[in-house]
């Protein structure tokens, strides 16, 4: 497969997942602002959201210090100047798909193209008719359709591995970042840890990951920080946990290594296995002892290294 | 005359380049005025690819280097036996129709001043006209290094009234074509008896197609026809088209270049 | 008053090829037709077969209007066309082989030397090289118009990279999907073997140095190109990689593509980019679309390029006038298909005649294409004619003139029902170890009443083209 094709497929997967992340961030933000007892109002919550998504500076450049719900909504969903907005991601995923049309089934292209056409229709509607919940629904609905088409119709070849590698690495990164939002939200108010508010915030995060019900099935009882963190980090049944995402990445990398044989470098696979081992070696207590933020920073870094190694091994088009 | 030529070009890249592809016209032509006794081209860390003689009679070699690479040295060394043919290119195998060389290029496009210059001379026949045009160009453009640069056109050089061999050749080509004489740019080496600067050793001149005689060389910069001090490499519609080295480097690094050319006469 | 040949009704009677269609039209209620038309459009849009016209702005995803009414040829009519088209493709390739070699046709005085050697499309870098099997133009698109029951004329040759074949294939797919009964009840020759024939043709011209099964790729300028859909469509149907210049690189006298498994050698490149952008080391230095060093590899037999660089010298509108001469000179045959009478404006007599009769003639730029840079005398205003005359005076050598042709009409769906509209035809002839032609082509139709311009950029549409079996 052409390296450029593989790169387009990989990034198509990443952008599709990233679109969903942007929509989820929007959802988390909207819910957190509904919390009682936030003396400083919603402003800080949105700010921490922007910090978590690493977009504070870019946002400020565009909107100044006007961190209003509407501005953040625009930024996260519609703004083409934000490379991680839902609109940007869907557009780029579709563009990437168009470039590699021959590597996609018509069902996948159809789903991708419909998402794009519907997005354009949505952009033409007046903002008054749209609320964050609806925008989140729009995004998750379309991304599920595309994903379904991919898994139902694509050949299980290297292209499929690259798409899913994109998805899984992006998801590993996104879940880690979303968890980090919690860190940023709580940072200035250590006294809240373990309080009702703290637990409410954890629930919001679960909800944002569409993991609210799943969590209860898996753990039952009260929502506590360590249970939620365990569910989102180390639980292999949780579909968006760090462990699951990394397992999937490893599985697809192993698929590529098997397919391509020893003649093709496999530094990404080696790196991913290493990270996986280190992740498995931890339990949730160890992670809290280490500091959740520190742990997440380490993990985000690892994912970036694996992604770079994927680029070096397969996408760079070495001569 | 037996001439010994060494021509070394080194390219440095910072950061290192990912690779390089070159197309070299750095092998002396085969014709009555010169015979190659010995000739080697080497590119450090490179692989020789395509090698063939094209329709214009030039020997072309493609070379590639797979990176990452910090420095590449292209070395030419060889000896050529030359003979004075009064500029006439005889015994040169080529199949390109001379009419092809009437085509204007960006560097040789005619303007009013060039047209005036071209029309200022009258000749008894093509050869005579070509000689007169060469002399006219030599008068109109004084040899003065450093005034013009690689992208200077014939029209610009004439307007400046100064230039180097490339500008003389371009201006002469433009004038000849204006008069209906096919003309082309020739790149090569020149042995300067007067112990000139080493950079003079890489040289260029024009060839004009004059009826029954065929292609004849004219070096307006030195107001003469190429003789046994000249070594002919290849030709083209202009300097760019005749460039002895064309290449592409992959990578984002800065390139720095160092060229050393030497043409010495060997004791017989 | 010009008489236009009506392909459906001749002498008051419905001609045989259209007989069954006439029933089909009559029994189809208007609302069904509208529904089908909408369905066809939705299908085209969904598969993404759209085209963009440079510089026109507007919707980049514009559809070329599709007319559901097919254009039909009888087997006998087609056989004759086929012989003529193949003959012409052979003649054009013989010409290319010759002018990049010894130039016998020029030496024999059958075509003026400057027309060939001073032609902007004549590539000096190609001189002296003979590509595998001596084929320069592997896909020859020949634009044909019909002016009478047995009268066909060639309007233009396309020896470089004629586009439109994806419409030929998609139009058929859509017709078969929407009207299966039409295909069950009539014996219509298939065209869907085209991609496989194209692949085989390209593989058959692999260089001698190729080991094993040749690797064929399509080289596209990229997804911003207006014909990108066609490039990816063909790559998909042929099962070959669609590459951009940056996917390829030259090393050690061969061309490789960058793959996830490392470099892979490429043997045949079906390029859909112009000569000038193919190789910055040979042509335009600033080209980012090409492959540095490609021409050296091609000229030393390390890779094949289809069509060969420089093939455009054969399809120039001035060289066009000499194609019948080529057929006589190289093949020793009389041309089966006629040219349209053409005046070349660099000849004084022709110039005088044309300037005096601009209002009756069509004047075209020698290198123009797509219906741009042309004057249609009978449809132009006085001011337009005068303005064009000034352009001609400035550079007569850049123009040719032809009579306004009485393009035949084919029945076409219009708002009011079915009406005759002018059509032309572009079949795609493949040249490799064999010369192949699928029975069909792209029929373009001028949808505006009375219009003779079939170009999609100027109100033209497309139709499925049928050849009936015996």
From TrEMBL, chain A:
Coiled coil: none annotated. Transmembrane segments: none annotated. Residues 1-315 form the DUF403 domain. It holds the Pfam family Alpha-E. InterPro entries: ATP-dep_Glu-Cys_Ligase-2, DUF403. This is DUF403 domain-containing protein. It comes from Paracoccus denitrificans (strain Pd 1222).
From TrEMBL, chain B:
Signal peptide: none annotated. Transmembrane segments: none annotated. Coiled coil: none annotated. Residues 157-222 form the Transglutaminase-like domain. InterPro entries: Bac_transglu_N, Papain-like_cys_pep_sf, Transglutaminase-like. Pfam families: Bact_transglu_N, Transglut_core. This is Transglutaminase, N-terminal domain protein. It comes from Paracoccus denitrificans (strain Pd 1222). The lineage of its organism: Bacteria, Pseudomonadati, Pseudomonadota, Alphaproteobacteria, Rhodobacterales.
From TrEMBL, chain C:
InterPro entries: ATP-dep_Glu-Cys_Ligase-2 (IPR051680), CP_ATPgrasp_2 (IPR025841), UCP005522 (IPR016450). Pfam families: CP_ATPgrasp_2. Gene3D superfamilies: 3.30.1490.270, 3.40.50.11290. SUPFAM superfamilies: Glutathione synthetase ATP-binding domain-like. Residues 70-446 form the Circularly permuted ATP-grasp type domain. PANTHER family: BLR5612 PROTEIN, SLL1039 PROTEIN. This is Circularly permuted ATP-grasp type 2 domain-containing protein.
């Amino acid at each position: 497969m052409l390296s450029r094709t593989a790169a387009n497929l990989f990034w198509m997967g990443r952008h599709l997942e990233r679109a969903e992340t942007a929509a989820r961030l929007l959802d988390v933000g909207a819910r957190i602002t509904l919390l009682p007892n936030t003396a400083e109002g919603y402003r800080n919550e949105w700010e921490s959201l922007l910090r978590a998504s690493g977009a504070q500076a870019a946002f400020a450049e565009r909107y100044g210090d006007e961190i209003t719900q509407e501005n953040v909504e625009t930024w996260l969903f519609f703004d083409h100047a934000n490379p991680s907005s839902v609109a940007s991601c869907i557009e780029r995923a579709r563009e990437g798909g168009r470039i590699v049309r021959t590597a996609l089934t018509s069902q996948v292209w159809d789903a991708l193209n419909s998402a794009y056409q519907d997005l354009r229709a949505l952009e033409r509607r007046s903002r008054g008719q749209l609320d964050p919940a609806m925008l989140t629904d729009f995004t998750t609905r379309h991304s599920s359709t595309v994903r379904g088409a991919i898994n139902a119709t694509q050949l299980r070849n290297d292209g499929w591995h690259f798409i899913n590698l994109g998805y899984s690495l992006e998801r590993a990164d996104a879940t880690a970042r979303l968890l980090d939002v919690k860190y940023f939200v709580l940072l200035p108010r250590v006294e809240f840890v373990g309080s009702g508010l703290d637990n409410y915030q954890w629930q919001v995060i679960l909800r944002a990951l569409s993991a609210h019900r799943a969590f209860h099935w898996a753990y039952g009882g009260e929502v506590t920080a360590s249970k939620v963190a365990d569910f989102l980090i180390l639980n292999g049944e949780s579909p968006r946990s760090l462990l699951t995402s990394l397992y999937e990445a490893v599985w697809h990398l192993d698929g590529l290594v098997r397919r391509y044989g020893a003649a093709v470098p496999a530094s990404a696979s080696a790196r991913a296995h290493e990270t996986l081992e280190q992740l498995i070696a931890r339990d949730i207590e160890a992670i809290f002892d280490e500091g959740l933020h520190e742990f997440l920073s380490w993990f985000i870094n690892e994912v970036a290294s694996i992604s770079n190694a994927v680029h070096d091994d397969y996408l760079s088009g070495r001569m | 005359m037996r001439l010994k030529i060494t021509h070394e070009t080194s390219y440095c890249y910072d950061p290192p380049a990912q690779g390089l592809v070159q197309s070299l016209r750095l092998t002396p032509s085969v014709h009555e005025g010169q015979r190659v006794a010995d000739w080697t081209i080497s590119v450090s860390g490179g692989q020789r690819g395509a090698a063939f003689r094209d329709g214009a009679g030039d020997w072309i070699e493609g070379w590639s280097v797979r990176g990452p690479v910090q420095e590449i040295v292209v070395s030419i060394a060889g000896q050529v036996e030359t003979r004075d043919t009064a500029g006439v290119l005889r015994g040169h195998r080529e199949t390109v129709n001379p009419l092809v060389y009437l085509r204007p290029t960006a560097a040789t496009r005619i303007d009013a001043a060039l047209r005036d210059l071209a029309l200022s001379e009258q000749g008894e026949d093509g050869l005579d006209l070509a000689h007169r045009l060469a002399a006219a160009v030599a008068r109109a453009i004084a040899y003065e290094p450093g005034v013009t640069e690689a992208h200077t056109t014939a029209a610009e050089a004439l307007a400046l009234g100064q230039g180097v061999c490339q500008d003389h050749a371009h201006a002469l080509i433009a004038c000849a074509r204006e008069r209906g004489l096919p003309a082309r740019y020739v790149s090569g080496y020149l042995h300067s008896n007067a112990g000139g600067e080493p950079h003079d050793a890489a040289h260029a001149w024009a060839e004009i197609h004059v009826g029954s005689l065929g292609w004849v060389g004219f070096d307006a910069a030195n107001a003469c026809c190429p003789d046994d001090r000249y070594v002919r490499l290849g030709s083209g519609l202009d300097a760019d088209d005749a460039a002895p080295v064309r290449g592409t480097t992959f990578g984002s690094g800065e390139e720095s270049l160092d060229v050393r050319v030497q043409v010495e006469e060997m004791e017989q | 008053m010009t008489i236009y040949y009506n392909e459906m009704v001749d002498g008051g009677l419905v001609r045989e090829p259209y007989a069954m269609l006439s029933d089909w039209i009559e029994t189809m209620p208007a609302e069904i037709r509208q529904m089908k038309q909408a369905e066809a459009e939705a299908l085209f849009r969904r598969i993404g077969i759209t085209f963009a016209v440079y510089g026109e702005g507007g919707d980049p995803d514009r559809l070329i209007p599709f007319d559901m009414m097919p254009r039909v040829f009888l087997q006998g009519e087609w056989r004759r066309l086929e012989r003529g088209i193949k003959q012409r493709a052979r003649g054009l390739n013989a010409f290319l082989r010759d002018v990049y070699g010894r130039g016998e046709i020029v030496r024999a005085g059958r075509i003026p030397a400057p027309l060939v050697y001073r032609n902007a499309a004549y590539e000096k870098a190609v001189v002296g090289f003979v590509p595998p099997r001596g084929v320069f133009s592997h896909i020859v698109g020949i634009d044909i118009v019909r002016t009478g029951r047995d009268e066909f004329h060639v309007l233009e040759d396309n020896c470089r990279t004629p586009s439109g074949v994806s419409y030929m294939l998609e139009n058929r797919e859509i017709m078969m999907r929407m009207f299966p009964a039409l295909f069950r009840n009539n014996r219509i020759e298939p065209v869907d073997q085209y991609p496989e024939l194209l692949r085989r043709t390209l593989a058959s011209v692999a260089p001698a140095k190729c080991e094993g099964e040749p690797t064929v790729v399509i080289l596209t300028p990229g997804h911003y190109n207006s014909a990108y859909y066609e490039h990816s469509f063909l790559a998909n149907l042929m099962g070959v990689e669609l590459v951009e210049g940056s996917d390829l690189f030259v090393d050690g006298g061969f061309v490789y593509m960058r793959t996830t498994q490392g470099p892979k050698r490429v043997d045949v490149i079906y390029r859909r980019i112009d000569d000038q952008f193919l190789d910055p080391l040979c042509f335009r230095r600033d080209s980012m679309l090409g492959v540095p060093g490609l021409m050296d590899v091609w000229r030393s037999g390390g890779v094949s390029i289809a069509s060969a660089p420089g093939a455009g010298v054969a399809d120039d509108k001035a060289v066009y006038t000499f194609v019948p001469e080529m057929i006589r000179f190289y093949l020793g045959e009389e041309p089966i298909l006629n040219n349209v009478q053409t005046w070349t404006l660099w000849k004084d007599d022709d110039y005088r005649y044309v300037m005096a009769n601009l209002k009756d003639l069509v004047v075209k730029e020698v290198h123009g294409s797509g219906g741009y840079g042309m004057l249609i005398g009978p449809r132009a205003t006085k001011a337009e004619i005068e303005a064009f005359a000034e352009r001609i005076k400035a550079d007569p050598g850049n123009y040719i003139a032809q009579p306004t042709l009485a393009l035949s009409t084919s029945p076409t769906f219009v708002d009011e029902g079915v009406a005759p509209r002018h059509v032309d035809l572009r079949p795609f002839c493949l040249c490799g170890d064999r010369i192949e032609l699928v029975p069909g082509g792209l029929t373009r139709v001028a949808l505006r009443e009375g219009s003779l311009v079939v170009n999609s950029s100027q109100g033209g549409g497309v139709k499925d083209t049928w050849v009936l079996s015996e």
